[in-house]
Every structure is written in structure tokens, then in C-alpha cells.
């Protein structure tokens, strides 16, 4: 089993995940993902394993809906921080919160009604190791169980760099950055160059939509549906301010839903959510 990039793990152990889903693009990601989870998950009190679940934003929310949620994450800091969210969900508790690798979860086979794997896949650079993680999800699920997998698209870095290009950010003019982007577009491999001003996440793998579906199929999953969870909504200027306005927020989410499953432009969404079933 190959290890996760040390820079990626160090980033999460620094507490970087705290409040990620409460600002900027994370606001849309969290809102739309919760809509989709409500649609696809079996009813509570189903058992849900949230693998690579950060410090538990989804885990605690699902617990508040009556689900029996086990939270797993590779970063010790995330698991330690998970107790912070208990104050927002009085009367709720997680069944477990444990440090664990997505490829080796200490639970019996067929013990989960649903598995969330909404982080690990893009931090596992090698295809065979991603399949190992997906096979572990399949092992944990009961027959017919639901798997929800998040991925970052190959276009995400270039799209982001274009939206912030200007006086404070000249990455599009930087050869090292653009060479990284060209490699991402061609292979999905994201390797942060040492000689670049870019300070994004460490080594990762970014998916093409059909590639993600192929990996899920190879792991034995069926009825695969892809959703562009942030659609075009993340392009809205001053997103944090707009989100405080109920009418503006509703308009943004309507736009996101309109493009959610449009295969021609699904890559415009920097994040994908694949939902499928175990045979």
C-alpha cells in the first residue's frame, strides 16, 4: 500500500479542512451534496461510513437526521477536531470517529448501508491504489448499498487560475504552472512544481468524468450517476456575500442544478459527485 503524499497529509494535519465547506466554493459544494445525499441515501437509521470525511461536516449533519455514522479520516487533526462540531448538533453523536486509511477500514464486510468516499480518491495518485480504496468500499457495503464518491476534475486548476488572474495572481503567465496544468489535462496527474508561486494541494489525481465512471465500474459498481455539484455557480463574483442573500442563493443553486447532469459541460464543475450501487 503506497502512502499518501506527505505534503497533502501535512496540509490536513495543519487544520486546513476547518470551515472549508463554509466559505467560497465550499458553500455550494456542501449545499448541493446534501441535496443529493437526501435523494440517494437509504432512510435513517441506516448505517453510513464516512471515509475520508475530514472533521465531520457531513457526518454530524447525517447524524442529526438519525443516521448511524462512523467517521474515518487519515489526518489525526481532523479526527481530533471532529468533537468541535458536537456543539452545533446538540443531542447527536457519531457512532465512531477514527484515524484510518480509506484502503483499510476496520469494519466487517457488508456492515454499511451507505459509504461516503468524498475526499480520498483525488489524493490517491496511483490508479491501482484508487481501485483498492473503491474495492474496500465495496467490501464494506451490503448488496445494493449506496456509494457516494467525490472527485476533482482535470479542468479545475486552470479554471480557478483563470478566474483569479489579475494584479495579485499571474499564474497563467508562469511556465512551471502552465506545464503542471498541461500535464493535468493530459493525464490527470497533479504535481505541484517546486519553482512555482502556486500553493495548492500536493500530489493528487484529477479525473475526467468518463475515467471516474470507468474506475467505479472496474470496482464492480452499477447504476453510476455523475453530478457536477458546483456547476457554474462557483463562477459568481463575491460568492460569500451573495450567499447571505436568500434570493441570490436560490438563484445560484437553480443555476447549479440546471447544469448538474449535462455531460457536455459537467467538467465546468470543479467537483464531481458519483453515486452508484454495489451489485
Automatic annotation (TrEMBL):
Keywords: Methyltransferase, Transferase
Domain of life: Bacteria
Any one GO molecular-function label of the UniProt entry: S-adenosylmethionine-dependent methyltransferase activity
Residue span, Methyltransferase type domain: 50-148
GO biological process, one term: methylation
Keyword Cell membrane found: no
Name of the protein: Methyltransferase domain-containing protein
